[in-house]
Recover the amino acids of this structure.
């Protein structure tokens, strides 16, 4: 799994990095920590006489380095898959019955990259996720500025709307006790099921699978998929609760459930969630919800 | 031995109910009989009479039997006592009720998907089958672990009925039992602190008596309750606090209206509920 953690210099980003580190400890994901510096800020620095390059004392660069250290504190040195091993001699069988002591470098098993981009943060995050084929983008925010980032820009909301992969918006102030996953179609990827599985393990929370329906009853294919999901998790010693919610009651359901922790929406091409959650509503959900939000694609 | 009838359809609710019943059968001495009623209305009006009708019914049953057998076969490994289902064509409630009246069942089990809207639950509770069932009913909403059971107690209700029903089913089973004495609070209602403190003391005294009586009855029937307490909150909040229980045992009465806080609570409980008619 490839996780892209988009950060700014606020404490909620540190919180998001900490959450991803816990997730990565279970999944051994390849992780990229990305900071995007708006061009105008760079120009201002340049006007101040600084050269057009990242200075060692650049605040964003410094924050990224701190986040990398924070990420690594979640691992012991022996078990950390992200640490580059030292160079040294090692006896290796080069042909049958012939050994040679070679000077080798043991590379890290998994990647932990720290990257900087220049430009619009939303475009930078989306470009990075597409170029690197990320499976999940993680961003932090809090409700103090309506989930806005520096300068009040609504980066998390825009990334949630535009990204082609899954996006997790981690709310700094909320402890996750329950993971509520809403489903209205039968195209659920194995990877998204595993991602939920990891989150349940990470937060030690309850899992609730919600089937959305426009009428009184679930569509047959959705019901069959929910049965398969129930069996999948039960086999992994997780006992999810199943709940049926009518689309017309979705708003009140979300406002009631959001207090518990993490709201996940499985968005599909034919999903009614795409209809009931147009961009504006997703913005509202990310902005207003007390809970962290995971959009699964 | 407890003799239970489990109603099955080829759907998720039945699959959950069957797995829950199997879990129960592995805990207590229980004989599980499954039943499926193929409703003729699903396939249009029955044609003719005599052999024409019988042939048509046979065709319907064969298709249904295949689906129900798949459901049962999937659970057979964990539930070896499962036998072939009883299959009927007709009106579901009437046929199930007839079966419950003809055979000495101690328990009826069926599934309904837990819903944010309570309408399906209310429909079930008001149905002829539920109102006339000669035995207690377990309504399974989710596949939850049956390690913990809670008995809900309310003032002015027959405690003995719930305790006897529970003790009969769970005789010798390794379950933790809690007793909750319910005092409902209207949603959004404000209470003044002084008055609230005074009523809280008298409420607690009432509860102590009810809980003590229920505890004694349970002990007399060989069950030791793990904990007991008075719960004073809105139906929705109490229901949410019952999420960890594998079974919620409650009384239910024919006189309960739609606005009954106990019914609201039971509709919002995501676990299985054991209904004892009073």
């Amino acid at each position: 799994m490839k996780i892209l953690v988009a950060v700014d210099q606020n404490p909620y980003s540190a919180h998001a990095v900490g959450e991803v580190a816990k997730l990565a400890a279970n999944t051994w994901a390849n992780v990229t920590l990305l900071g995007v510096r708006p061009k105008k800020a760079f120009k201002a620095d340049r006007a101040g006489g600084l050269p057009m390059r990242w200075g060692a004392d650049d605040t964003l660069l410094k924050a990224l380095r701190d986040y990398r250290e924070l990420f690594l504190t979640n691992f012991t040195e022996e078990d950390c898959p992200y640490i580059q091993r030292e160079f040294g001699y090692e006896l290796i069988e080069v042909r049958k019955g012939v050994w040679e002591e070679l000077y080798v470098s043991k590379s890290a098993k998994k990647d932990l990259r720290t990257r900087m981009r220049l430009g619009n943060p939303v475009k930078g995050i989306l470009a990075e996720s597409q170029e690197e084929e990320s499976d999940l983008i993680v961003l932090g925010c809090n409700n103090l500025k309506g989930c806005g980032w520096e300068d009040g820009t609504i980066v998390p909301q825009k990334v949630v709307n535009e990204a082609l992969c899954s996006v997790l918006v981690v709310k700094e102030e909320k402890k996750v006790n329950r993971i509520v996953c809403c489903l209205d179609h039968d195209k659920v990827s194995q990877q998204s099921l595993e991602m939920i599985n990891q989150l349940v393990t990470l937060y030690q929370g309850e899992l609730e699978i919600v089937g959305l329906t426009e009428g009184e009853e679930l569509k047959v294919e959705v019901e069959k998929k929910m049965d398969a999901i129930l069996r999948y998790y039960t086999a992994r010693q997780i006992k999810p609760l199943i709940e049926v919610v009518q689309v017309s009651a979705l708003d009140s359901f979300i406002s009631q459930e959001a207090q518990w922790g993490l709201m996940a929406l499985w968005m599909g091409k034919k999903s009614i969630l795409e209809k009931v959650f147009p961009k504006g509503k997703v913005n509202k959900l990310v902005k207003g919800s007390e809970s962290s939000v995971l959009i699964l694609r | 031995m407890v003799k239970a009838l489990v109603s099955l359809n080829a759907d998720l609710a039945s699959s959950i109910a069957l797995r829950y019943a199997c879990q129960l059968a592995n805990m207590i001495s229980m004989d599980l009989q499954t039943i499926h009623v193929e409703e003729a209305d699903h396939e249009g009006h029955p044609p003719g009479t005599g052999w024409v009708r019988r042939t048509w019914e046979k065709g319907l049953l064969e298709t249904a039997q295949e689906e129900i057998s798949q459901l049962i076969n999937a659970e057979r490994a964990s539930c070896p006592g499962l036998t072939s289902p009883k299959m009927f064509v007709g009106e579901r409630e009437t046929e199930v009720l007839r079966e419950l009246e003809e055979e000495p069942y101690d328990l009826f089990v069926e599934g309904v998907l837990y819903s944010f809207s309570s309408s399906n639950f209310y429909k079930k509770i008001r149905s002829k089958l539920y109102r006339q069932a000669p035995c207690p009913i377990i309504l399974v909403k989710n596949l939850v672990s049956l390690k913990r059971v809670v008995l809900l107690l309310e003032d002015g209700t027959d405690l003995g009925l719930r305790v006897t029903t529970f003790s009969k089913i769970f005789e010798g089973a390794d379950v933790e039992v809690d007793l909750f004495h319910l005092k409902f609070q209207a949603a959004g209602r404000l209470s003044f602190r002084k008055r609230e403190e005074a009523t809280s003391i008298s409420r607690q005294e009432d509860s102590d008596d009810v809980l003590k009586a229920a505890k004694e009855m349970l002990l007399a029937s060989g069950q030791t309750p793990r904990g007991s307490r008075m719960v004073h909150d809105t139906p929705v909040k109490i229901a949410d606090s019952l999420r960890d229980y594998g079974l919620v045992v409650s009384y239910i009465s024919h006189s309960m209206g739609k606005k009954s806080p106990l019914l609201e609570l039971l509709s919002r409980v995501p676990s299985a509920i054991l209904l004892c008619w009073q």
In short: Chain A has a mean pLDDT of 83. DSSP finds ten helices and twelve strands in chain A.
